Amino acid sequence: MILPIVAYGDPVLRKVGTSISKEYPNLKELISNMWDTMYNASGVGLAAPQIGLPIRLFLVDTEPFSEDEELNSEEQQKLKTFKKVFINAEIIEEKGSPWSFNEGCLSIPDIREDVARQDTIRIRYFDENFNEQVEEYDGLLARVIQHEYDHIEGILFTDKLSTLKKRLLKGKLGNISKGKIKVDYKMRFPAIKKGR
Predict the structure, then answer these.
(1) What's the pLDDT tens digit per position in 71-88?
(2) Among residues 125, 157, 146, 91, which one has the least CA distance to residue 19?
């Protein structure tokens, strides 16, 4: 089932997610709905706060990035087959030189900016069967995971921009939170208070 994606300005996007147990109600169905929602919006990642749930759950499928001709065939293959669910994730270590890449977000449509992130991460998480994993990722995989991980920490990619960039984007961000934007997927906008 396709769920509406929560837009910039909703307080749920600013909450640090709470950990869940394998008894979390309808977890398999929730994960299935999140995949449907992400694919419907042509995303490569989606975190639970983006569908209104302040829990530590996100998923990633980097297959669309595998088409990038600037990548070598080994990297393309890695991205083509990477599809994972991350539950109660915790980044243990970030290392390597920071590098910039143009990022966007389904909760912040029509805004893309260069964001610097470290190249390599070590992450501990539970998969969808609640098996604990500790893995290391680098390059684009690490970046997509870092972006989704930020969501469960209440952080948006726009938080990582310079003060000037944030000032320049203020009007656009305000329009998104007011629902003054056209997207080809379902969105839920923050309640607009009367008298403002």
Answers:
(1) 788 888 889 999 999 999
(2) 125
Q: Do the beta carbons of residue 54 and residue 24 sit within 8 Å? A: no
The residues annotated with a catalytic role in the active site are 148
pLDDT in tens, 37-70: 999 999 999 999 999 999 999 999 999 988 877 7
Q: Which residues of 99-127 are buried (b: 16+ CB within 10 A; e: fewer)?
A: eeeebbbbbbbebebebebbeebebebbe
Q: What sign does the dihedral 112-114-117-121 (CA atoms) show?
A: positive
Q: Which phi-psi region, left, alpha or beta, contains residue 52 (left: φ > 0; alpha: ψ -120 to 50)? A: left
> Which pLDDT band holds residue 123 (cuts at 50, 70, 90)?
very high
- Which three-class secondary structure state does DSSP give residue 25? coil
Domains of the chain, CATH where assigned: 5-188 (3.90.45.10)
Cα–Cα dist 3/49, whole Å: 12
Whole-angstrom Cα distance, residue 1 to residue 63? 21
